Amino acid sequence: MSVAPPLLAVEGLTKSYGGVHAVRGVSFSLRAGEILALIGPNGAGKSTCFDMLNGQNRPDTGHVRLLGEDTTGRKPREIWRMGVGRTFQITATFATMTVRENVQVALISHGKQLLNLWGSAPSYDRGEAGRLLELVGMGGYADRPCGELAYGDLKRLELAVALANQPKLLLMDEPTAGMAPRERVDLMRLTAQIAREKAIGVLFTEHDMDVVFEHADRIIVLNRGTLIAEGSPAEVRGNPQVQAVYLGEGLLYDAGHREGASA
Amino acid sequence: MRAGNTFVGAAFALLAGGMAHSALAQDIKIGEINSYSLLPAFTEPYRKGWQLAVEEINAAGGINGKKLVVISKDDGGKPADAQTAANELVSSEGVAMLTGTFLSNIGLAVSDFANQKKVFFLAAEPLTDAVTWSKGNKYTFRLRPSNYMQAAMLVEAASKLPAKRWATIAPNYEYGQSAVAVFKKLMSEKRPDIQWVDEQWPPQGKIDAGPVVQAVAAANPEAILNVTFGADLVKLVREGNTRGLFKGREVVSFLTGEPEYLDPLKEETPEGWIVTGYPWYSIKTPEHDAFLKAYQAKYNDYPRLGSIVGYQTIKSAAAILAKAGSTDPEKLIAAAEGLSMPSPFGEITFRKIDHQSTLGAYLGKTALKDGKGVMVDSVYKKGGDYLPSDAEVAKLRPKD
Amino acid sequence: MAFYVVQFLTGLASAASLFLVASGLSIIFGVTRIVNFAHGAFYMIGAYIAFTLTERLSGTFGFWGGIVMAALAVAVIGVIVEMVLLRRIYHAPELFQLLATFGLTLMVEDLVVLIWGPDDLVGRRAPGFRGAIDFFGQHIPSYDLFLIALSPVVLGVLWLLFQRTRWGVLVRAATQDRDMVAALGVNQKWLFTSVFAVGVFLAAVGGALQIPRDAVHHAMDLRIIVEVFVVVVIGGLGSIIGAFVAAVLVSELNAFGILIFPKISIILVFLVMAAVLIVRPWGLFGKPEAPARKTPGLTVNPWRPLTSNERLAALAALIVAATLPLFAGNYALTVGSEIAIFVIFAVSLHFLMSVGGLASFGHAAYFGLGAYGVAFLAKMAGLPMIVCLLLGPLLGCMGAAVFGFFAVQLSGVYFAMLTLAFAQIVWSIAFQWVSVTGGDNGILGVWPEKWAASPSNFYWLSLGVAALVTIALRAMVFSPFGYALRGTRDSALRSEAVGINVKRMQWTAFVIAGTTAGIGGALFAYLKGSVFPDNLGISLSVDALVMVLLGGVETVSGGVIGAIVYKALNIWLISQTDLSKLVLGGFIVLIVVVFPKGIVGMLEMLAQRRGKASPPGSPLLAKPIESAE
Prior knowledge:
The structure holds 3 protein chains of 3 kinds.
Chain A lengths: L7 E10 L2 E11 L4 E5 L6 H9 L6 E6 L2 E2 L5 H6 L2 E4 L11 H12 L15 H10 L15 H12 L6 E5 L7 H18 L2 E5 L3 H7 L2 E6 L2 E6 L1 H6 L1 H10 L9 H4 L1
Parallel strand pairs in A: 3-8, 3-9, 6-7, 7-8
Antiparallel strand pairs in A: 1-2, 1-4, 4-5, 9-10
Helix pairs in contact in A: 3-4, 3-5, 4-5, 5-6
Chain B lengths: L1 H15 L11 E7 L5 H20 L8 E7 L4 H14 L4 E4 L3 H14 L2 E4 L16 E3 L4 H12 L6 E5 L4 H17 L4 E6 L8 H10 L4 E4 L3 H14 L6 E8 L1 H4 L11 E4 L8 H14 L5 H20 L4 H8 L3 E2 L6 E2 L11 E9 L2 E10 L8 H7 L4
Parallel strand pairs in B: 1-2, 1-3, 3-4, 4-5, 6-7, 6-8, 8-9, 9-10
Antiparallel strand pairs in B: 10-13, 11-12, 13-14
Chain C lengths: L1 H31 L6 H18 L2 H26 L11 H21 L4 E2 L9 E4 L2 E4 H23 L1 H11 L1 H6 L4 H21 L6 E2 L3 H16 L4 H21 L7 H12 L28 H15 L1 H4 L2 H26 L8 H16 L5 H7 L1 H15 L4 H21 L1 H4 L5 E2 L5 H4 L1 H23 L2 H11 L1 H6 L4 H27 L1 E2 L6 H14 L6 H19 L3 H15 L3 H14 L18
Antiparallel strand pairs in C: 1-4, 2-3, 5-6
Helix pairs in contact in C: 1-5, 1-6, 1-8, 1-9, 1-10, 2-3, 2-4, 2-8, 2-9, 3-8, 4-27, 5-6, 9-10, 9-11, 11-18, 14-21, 14-24, 14-25, 14-26, 15-16, 15-17, 15-18, 15-24, 17-18, 17-24, 21-24, 22-24, 25-26, 25-28, 26-27
C-alpha cells in the first residue's frame, strides 16, 4: 500500500436524528484523480453523508480526514480553505453579479483579500478568472449577469467557482440534476477531464445511473444509512444486493425519474 | 398629480431659496415657528390668537406706522427642523425677531440659535425653566409662566392640604421630571412632614394607564400630583375614575384647567382637582372681556389658553418693536427689558433679570357642569409673585 | 395578594388590544411578506370611524354595532389599498412595500386631522361595561374583563379559521412557503387581498375597542405601530400564538416592572425584544425563514464602476454644486449643507442595504452617536472642532461594532428589528441619562469654529465630506471586500462554500456603515449647534430607509439621489405647508407606483431600454428580483 495517506479518508461516520440512524458506520476513501460516485435510493443517507464531508453537518461519531488532516466538524469555509471545492444540488451562485464576478469572489477569497477595501475588484485576477471560465466553456459568458444564465450554464459556472481555490477534492451534490441529457454528458465529461488533468479527487452523488456508470471510476452504495456495496461500475451493477435495493425504486434503469421533482 | 408638480416646485424653490420675496420692504416682519402639524390641538387656537393680534395691531395703524407681517413656519415637532425654519426666517425672510415654539426642547434649540445668530427670540409657550435660567441667554425672552411658577402656584394651595402621603404621576421626560422636582422641593420646604410614597413615570403619549393607576393606588397615598396631559391624561382619568383612585384623595394637577386639556374629558372630568388653567368663562375683567369679544366675533369659537398665548406673544412683540423703534436686536433687548404692557390677564412685565414675563395663571378647582369640565373658585395668580428672589435667579442664570 | 392578581389582570387587559393589532400584522407579514408600516394607521382610522359611529348610533346595539361596522369599513379601505397600491408592487424589491405603507401612514396622519379636527376625541364608555368589579377591595374595570375574555376568543376564532378552513390552510401554507402556494395554482391575488383585509380588520377592531378607555387622536398610530412590530417579532413572525404570548409577556412585564422601576416602560419592550432575539433569533414561536428561492432567469443590471465620461459628469455636478455659494443666500446654503449631510447618512445605509443586503431599521443610532460624540468632545473636553469631527464618529463606530456583532447573527426582518431595538436602547439612554446627555433638552451650543462658521464655508465642508464619503463607499463597492460582501448578500451558502466568513463580512460592513453615518451625525451637530435624542430616533431611521428605497436599493448611487430628493422636498414642504405629511406621503406613494425600482433604478431602466431594440416589458410586470434572503 502507498505510504502517503489517501486524499479523503472517511472512517465510521455515524449520524442519527432522534434515535433514527441516518448514517451508520460509513467508511470509504478516495484517491487523488479518482472519481467516486455515492449512490443509493431516496432516504439512504446520501445527503447526510455528503453534508458531513463538506462541513454542513457534524457527525455523531467517526472522522473525515483530508490528506491525513482531520476535518471532522469543521465549518464549510474552513474545509474549503483546506482545498475542497463544491457544487450544490440546486445551484448556489451570486445571482446579481456577472459570471466573471462570481469567479472573482472565489478568487478574492482564495487570495485572502476579503477585507481589502481599496483594491479594484473588477481587475482582480481577471486572467485567472478568464482561464477558469474557459476551462468550463463559459469564456464567452463572462460579462453576462449570472441571473440570466440557463441552468446548465449555472452548473458550469459553479464548477468554475469550485475550481478557483485549486482544490484537491471536489464534492458535487447531484451535479447533473435538472439538466437536459445532452448537458449531463458534457458536464460530466468536462469534470472527469479536469479531474484527471489536475489530479483532483471527485466525490459526487447522483441519481442518474447512466451518468454514474459512465463516469465514475468507483461507486459506493448506501442503503438505510449503511454502506452495502463498493466497487467498479461493473461490480456494483452486478451486485445482487444493490439490484435488490434498486429494484423497488426501478431507478437503476430509469434514469430520468427524479428530475421532475428536483427541478 | 399635485405631488408631481410639487417636486418640480421643490427644485425651483431651492434654487430661489436665497432670495427673499413677498412682504414689502417697509413692513415689519416677525418670524413665528410652532409645532402646527404635530400638535394641532394646541397650536390651532394659538394661531388664531396671534392672527387676531396681527389684525388688531394693523387696524390700529401698525407699529410706528409700519404694517406688521407674521411669517409662520411649522417645525413638525423636531428641534432640527425648527432650526431650519428659524434659519429660513432670519436669513431668507429677514425677520426682525423670532417668536413661538411650544415644546421645551424646540424652545431651547431656537433659543440657542438666536443666541448664536444674535437674533431676538420671544419664546411663547415652552415651559422649561432652562429657557430663562440654566440655559438662558441675552437674546431670549419668554411669555408663558414657567414650570417653576406653575409649581409654586400649586404648592401654595397644596401645602394647605392635610395630606401627608403623596404620590406623583408625570410623563417621563424633562418637563415631567422638572415639574415633579420643583413641586417636591417647594412642597418639602413648606411641609417638612410630607412623605413621598410612590412615583410613576409613564412614557409621554404612551401611558399604560391601568397598571399605573393600580400601582399608585397600592401605595395608598392621601394626595396625588399629576403632570400628565393630553391623551395620557384622558386615559389616566378614565382608569382612575373606574378604579376609584381619586375617591377620597386630593389631586393637584399641572395645567389641567386649560381648556385644551379639560374639554376633552367631558363627563369624565374629575371633581375637586386643584389645577392651574384658564377659565375663560368666568373671568370678568375689562381686558379679558375685550379680548373674548373680539376672539368670539372673529372665530365664532371660544378661546383656549393657546389663544391667549398666541395673542399676547404678538402683542408683546409689537410693544417691544414699537418701543425700540428699530429692528436692531440690541435695541430690541434694551426695549424689552423691564417693559410693561397690558394683556388679557392684566398688566405684565418682561423682567430684566431673567427675561421672564410676569404673565400669571388661574388657580382653581375642577368641577363638572352640564356634562362638561370647568374650573371653579378660580383666582388669578400674578406670575411675578411666584418667582424666586433676584439673588437666587442671578445664581441660576449663566453670565451673559 | 389581591393587588397582584388585579395587577396581573390589568396587564392582561392591556395585552388584548396589543394582541389584536399584532395578530393582524403577523398574518399579513406571514403571507405577503409586507412590512406593513400602515398597520398603525388602520388601527387609528378604526378608532376614528368607531368614534363617529358610536357617537351617532345610540344604545347598546349602536355602540357594539358601531365598533363592528367601523372595523368592516376599515377592512374595505384595506382591500382598496391592497388592490390599488400594494398589488402593483409585490414584485418590487423587498421592503419597497414598506415605503408605500410609510407614505400612506404620513397621508393618514394629516387626513384624520382634516376630517375629524385637531382635538383629542373622547368617546363614550361601553354600555354594560362602565363600572368596576370589586375584588377583595381592589377595583377591576369590567371593560378590562371584557377585553381579557376577548383575546382568547379572537385567538380561538383565528385558530379555527386557520385549522379548519381551506382558506386557513392556504394561509398557513403560504406563510411556510410562498412559492409553493403559487406553484399549486392558487389564486394568489385573492389570497393576498383577503389576508390583508383580515389583518386590517383586526387592527381596526383593536383601534375601535380603545374608544371606551383612550382618547382618539392623530398620533395614535405611532404610539402603537412600533410596539406592535416588537410584539410580532418577539412572538415570531407569522405565529398567532406567538403574538398572543408576546403581547401578554410585554404587558405583564410592564405592569409589574413599573412597581420596581417606574421609568422602565419607556424602554421595556425593546429590552425584551433584544434579549429574545439574541437567545432565539426567530422569536419565541417563529421558525427559521425558508430561504427565498431564486428563480432562474431574473435580470439585474450588473453593477459596474463609472465610465470615464460618467466620472466627468459626476465631477461636473460636484463643481456646479460647489458654486452654490456664489449665487445663493445663507438659507439655501444651510439647506444645502443639510442635504449634503443627509447624503452621507443615506449612502451609509445604502451601502449596508444594497451591498450587504442588510436593512437596518435603526441606522439613526449611529448618526446620533456621531452627533453626541461631537457634543461630548466639544462641550465636555473642549476640543477643537477639527478634532471633534475626526473623533466624534468613533462613537458611532463603537456603537456599530458592539450592536452590529449581535445584529448580524440574524437576518431579514429579525435583523431589522434587532437594529431597531438597539437604536431605541441608545435613544432611551440619551433621553434618560439627563446628567450626561441633557435628556430631551439636549446639548446646546455646539457651534462651529470661526473658520467653518459662515454658511458658505460650512456648505463647502459638508459638500466636500459628502463627496469624499460617497466616493470612498463607491470605491468600496468595487473593492475585493465589496465583491465578497455582495456575494454574501446573494448567497450565504455559496459564500461559506468559498471560504467567506459571512458574519464577519457583514459585521465589517455594519461597522463601516455605522462609522460613516457617525460622520454625518458629527457634521449635523455642528450644523444645528445642538444635539437632541431625536438625532437617534426612529423617525430619523425611517427617513434614512425612505431615502434609500426612494433612490433605488438595487443601484449603486440610489442613496445619493434619494437623499437629495427626499430631503429637499421635505424641507421645502415643511416650510410651505402644515400639511407637509399629506403631500410628502402622496408623493412617496406616487413614486412607489410609477418607479417601483426607485428613482435611479427607473433612470437606469430607461437608459437600458433606449439601448435595446425591444423593450423588456412594463416595469410593473417585471419578474421578481429577490434580493438576499
